[in-house]
Amino acid sequence: MNIHDEFLRLWEEIANFDISEFAASLDPSDFPIPTLIPAGEGSGYVLSKAAVQALDAIARQIHESKVDYQEAYSASDFLNLTSECVGTIISNLSDDKQDWTANFELPLKEEIEARHSRKLTERIFFFGAILISPPEKLSIDIGPCRIVDRHQWLTEQLKQKLISSVSARRIKRTWTGVKLRPTKNGKRNHTETAILKSIGKCDYVICVQTNGSSVKQMEERATQCARIALLVVALFWQRPSSPMENFTLAQDLNRRIIYTGSIDVKRNLVICGSKSKHTFPHNAPTIDWQNELPKLQPIFDVFGRALKTQCDHAPPKATKEIYENIFQVLTLIYRGSIEPEPLFATALIGAAIDMLTGGKGSGGIAKLIEQQLGKSKNDALFSNGTTTGQFITKVYNIGRSRTLHGSNPELKKDWSENRMQAEVICRILLLQICDELHRDPNIVGLKHFMSKKNLAQAGSA
Fold it and tell me: Is 210 exposed, middle or buried (0-12, 13-18, 19+ CB in 10 A)?
């Protein structure tokens, strides 16, 4: 039904509503809790199941009518917003059907838009993070994300008077291992608990600045961006998955140790095995962070603009497409980097490489590699003799496409080397493209990038 029909269905349900009949007809297993919508001044309306369905349909159609609403609210959040507005509108209407028909749809949409504008807010989320070991004093800016060591972060909050000097001292003592009793000051206790639980025992804090209308949506996107910020730092390494074995948010720490139960059939013995990931990659290069970070800031700025498309409710439209493309590539690489199964990691990173071409498939990948690395299909791409053509066939055609379509004939083979190759090439191509984006801000999409005739040729990445 169209939205007008749903308005009429809602009117009929509310106009003919009988609370006694409704209570008698309730089936606890099907519709256990009556739905209430507020109407202001402490009043409200009880909705029947049919009225709830009509209200849900109205909210869904309005939600889908504007991109702003779709990007700002989840379906459930927008239903709550619509319910609040419907109660306000109904309280100002008579029971007359014509009054509803003439004075419901437009006022409802205007009320939703007005409340949407008033709900716009800014919020900075902070997450504890494990990053470089041993910890160093770092401050890395990646668009709306900032990575800083926890002591510096705490000092900044003290200067901004977001926490008291007493709380700062108590938090520092807790970080040294001292167990403190909760303070009697309720607000101070709440602040200390929020900081200690969010940061945990991590040495770093990632702050993500967001704005929008739905706090739930903002939190989800901030969490996603914090994880991607870790990946951006991991791009210092040829294989991002190596440092990503250590890099993690406090809330993701449960994936650090993997327990596996098994039964040794021959010995009739139950065994519990555990595998914990390295504290840091054994072959980690020594990096002079203080000197290297300024050199990489232009690349961080490009990635920062990609993260901003998710944290800002209204990113610049002219460049939105290209930076949303980059964000999706980063998301695939992140998922591939933390994926324990080599085949599926290869599939994810193969998809990221394809996305870097604007979705042009194996032909586009071959063209991009030749443009950026100067390697044609028959040229050796790796020291073991693997050619560009062989790499594309294995990583993209079989690893990505045939795996996703359920026709991979090499499921049982070891994909570890292919994963490594995919990571190395994807990283180089991504950094080359980001360098080009830094030098040419007029590129509007990856397809546009692929159509450029004079791309930068290969260099060290």
Answer: buried
